[in-house]
Amino acid sequence: AKVVTKLAPLAGLSINAEQESVNVAVDASVFQSLNELRLTQIDALLLHRAEHLKTHEGRIWKRVLEHKQQGRIKSVGVSVQTPAELEVALAVAEITHIQMPMNVLEIGRAS
Fold first, then answer.
1. How high is the pLDDT of residue 101?
2. Axis crossing angle, helix 19-37 with helix 59-69, rounded to the nearest 10
3. What is the model's pTM?
């Protein structure tokens, strides 16, 4: 089985956070997932928010990619909420997984 998990939402992280603070927040989430899942490598880690590709001057995304480079994460992805976020995600070469809010049981159902 493959394990897919999400980075914490990082809601408490200031938009002006320096790289060191971003690293601490991202590291805490990654290591918590590894520890709680009893893994040495996560098959796929998704950004909880697509905006984290670019907010914080790209620092969150940069740190996630560093974890991938160091072998803690096999592949990366993003959770998207809108078609615009999907377009942005599709343009990022490193992204191999995309989570979208869609329920196949509701397709074609009247609103």
1. 85
2. 50
3. 0.90
